[in-house]
């Protein structure tokens, strides 16, 4: 054991204190550190991770010393797999896959898996179960506000066989075929089977719905499991649709009655017959037939030929209604422009020989062209409903502005208010026509009074005749007769 003399120990202590003082003097206030360096403990600068001032040194003693990048790949620090190679970057490194390395895919074209990691040979498989849906049906999906949950696809399981468990950085896109007809009111939910101690259930965690058409549904999931598509109807949405259906049927029934009375008025009330009443009559007839066909045939989607015929007739009748409303507006414009009084005795410049070809000919031409070029568009329940909603924007004068807002995206409450207003105004169009053109018209009211007086007089005359006939019969039956038939 070597023993230092007291003087040597004292000198060593002085040297250590001097070194510390020198270090503190250099960076006591922690001056601005160079690039790729940080201030440490408010006393000195130190290189960031991935940088050094020299082998095994990161502390900066002198201000002119700079931090240089560490080439981890050259030093052999990282451990990359056989199918990858080390690639140095400033301050770090990455393991890149070999360009020619392949990931085998048994179901190419059905599922595409992007994988940033380098695995050994990997197999991707999808298995479709034909009858498993009978047992793992929609009853295993629990969510508040949802009813009538149905399984609308085969159950499909996806798996990747690899020695290393894969982590999907990009979602898996699954396109599953629909097994049931699409309900336009229903919500399509992409789910996967999640096991639990109770047995398991369908879950939406990690999966989302992308698109649905009449044949297929596309789902996006960030993991591989057993997948399926559920078709569910919301309780709240179902109640709203039921309320709108009641309003529609009650309102259209009332409109049918008013349109019938209005058409009879315009047809039989001779003193008011002119160009205006002709336009009102044709519009009332078109709307009456369209509403009647809608009430009786909108839900008849089978057979296909009948459904297509109903769709084509609705198309024609609503287009004809639009054209007659356009002619009414044009007639009113010409009347005002020529400073004429709009009453029931002026015919203006409107020519009847142009009215009928425009009112009925143009819609017939449009429907014919549509049937020839796109006959497959006539037929489904959804297409008929969508067509009616769009055409009503133009047909019903009071509601076209409201109907326009239904095209845009709004909040749930706003859309609900718009839907109710749109439905109520639409179905009451016949009532509006009868009230405006009949009940609020003085000449029509006078004709109604004449009709009622005539009906009342006819009833009184008939009642008098019946009373006289009854009295006369009683008098004849009570007259005494002789034995030989003489008094």
Would you kindly provide a written description of the structure presented here, covering whatever features stand out?
The chain is an alpha+beta fold and 487 residues long. It has helices spanning 6-27, 72-75, 235-268, 275-297, 304-337, 352-373, 381-395, 400-405, 412-427, 429-439, 442-478; strands at residues 37-40, 44-47, 51-52, 59-60, 68-69, 84-89, 92-97, 123-129, 146-151, 155-161, 172-177, 187-194, 201-203, 207-212, 216-221, 226-234. The radius of gyration is 43 Å and the shape is elongated. Residues 1-28, 99-116, 340-348, 380-396 and 481-487 have low confidence and may be disordered.
Summary?
The protein is of the alpha+beta class and 487 residues long. It is 46% helix and 17% strand. Strand 1 (37-40) and strand 2 form a beta hairpin.
What is the molecular shape? elongated
Helicity range: 40-55%
Percentage of residues in strands: 15-25%
CATH architecture of the domain at 237-444: Up-down Bundle
User: Secondary-structure element sequence?
Assistant: HEEEEEHEEEEEEEEEEEHHHHHHHHH
Structural class based on helices, strands and sheet pairing: alpha+beta
CATH class of the domain at 237-444: Mainly Alpha
Low-confidence stretches: 1-28, 99-116, 340-348, 380-396, 481-487
Backbone CA Rg: 43 Å
Main beta sheet, described? 6 strands, antiparallel
